[in-house]
Amino acid sequence: MKRKMIAVILTCLMVFSASSCGKKPDNPSAEEKDTPKNKTSDTTDSTLTVWTWDPNFNIYAIKKAAELYAADGHEGFHVEITEIESQDIETKLTTIANAGELDALPDIFLIQDASFQKFAQNYPDIFTDLTDSGIDFSQFSTAKTSYSVVNGKNMGIPFDSGTAVNCVRTDYLEQAGFTVEDFTDITWSDYMEKAKIVKEKTGQPMLTAKSATPDIIMMMLQSCGASLFNDDGSPNLEQNDVLKECMSIYIQMVKDKTLEEMPGWDQYIASINNGTVASAMNGCWIIASVAAKEDQKGNWAVTNLPRLDNAPNATNYSSNGGSTWAVTSQCKDKELAQDFFKSTFAGSPELYDDILSKGALSTWLPAGDSTLYEQPVDFFGKDAIYKKIVDYSSKIPSSVTSPYYYDARDAMCTALSNVIQKGASLEEELKTAQETAEFNISK
Prior knowledge:
The protein is of the alpha/beta class. 41% of the residues lie in helices and 13% in strands. It has 16 helices and 13 strands. The chain has helices at 2-18, 55-71, 86-99, 113-122, 142-145, 170-175, 188-202, 215-222, 241-256, 265-273, 287-290, 334-343, 349-355, 385-393, 405-422, 426-442, and strands at residues 31-33, 46-52, 77-83, 108-112, 149-150, 153-154, 157-158, 164-169, 207-210, 259-262, 279-283, 300-303, 323-327. Strands 1-3-2-4-13-7 form a six-stranded mixed beta sheet. The radius of gyration is 22 Å and the shape is globular. The two termini are 18 Å apart.
């Protein structure tokens, strides 16, 4: 027990040294400031601190929101952003809550939809109740809003859609004798065979994925309405035939070298940008990273996902990711934070028109009326990709969710890793994963 306490204290010290609510970090390189150019010495300095990730997507979006808010009668407003990967934000939140040192929280943070319920239920003291904030939550997609509603209270501000897309390099497909149509409305078995040809002709894998976080498997499950949980909320890994089909596809593609695992997120994004992969399959937010290299304009296209061959209710449509903003209980100016979100992410068509170019499809319903969704996108071969993605989103099957999503997913990830790296039996590993998930949930 003494060792555990020392470990917690040391971890907390590390967290507190990295950031503090409402204070300027000691290391300026760890943050990005969005300061209005015309700020004068007698202008009120209204600053909100933010934890989020992905410079091309989330960071861009909240900086743009701050810019618009400052220009709309709130001169002097800006945000101080600390870039922290999603899983590291969750680790920090857990450490801070367990240590009872809530003053180490920022004013605002972003969190994955799949994690929101768990954190809001386990650590309610972290969050500010936004139910009476003036934000009209009825203007958001009901399915999206449900992630951040706890005991009838709105605890977060919905942000982006996670509709899945398959972004393909048309120049690489052409080298292999294919077109984007050859990868549209197909099965995974067909996809796997074509991926071998692409690898042979171009030397590049069809897919890359961050190791230990198999988003591809989760998208496969969602595409037919399957889940890691039964209807009663219990883990469903060992006897899950759909999961076995998904994992078998992933494992075989790694063996075929048509799917290459990357050691981290930066390496995954680099593989997309530096031309060492033939496609990027993920939530539509990946479009921001795909389109980051201007010299690749016209060499990319967007299509749907392959569908499972054997699973019941298989479709070519899925989702992955999506996230929600939260105002912390320690926010130094909650009224300011609430008005900021009410005026921007819950009230600004201009914001959503701007960030649409980053692949941020709004779940704020009024933004969907924009004519920009109909416009062709030069980078993707002048295709009206946003209209296409909205169509995809309407065809995604629903599935069983749980606050223990990551407990089951992490157990599955360990099983997958053991099969790929150690040659272990898939059946035995899923049995162990089932036991692990059940134990962790029961604690």
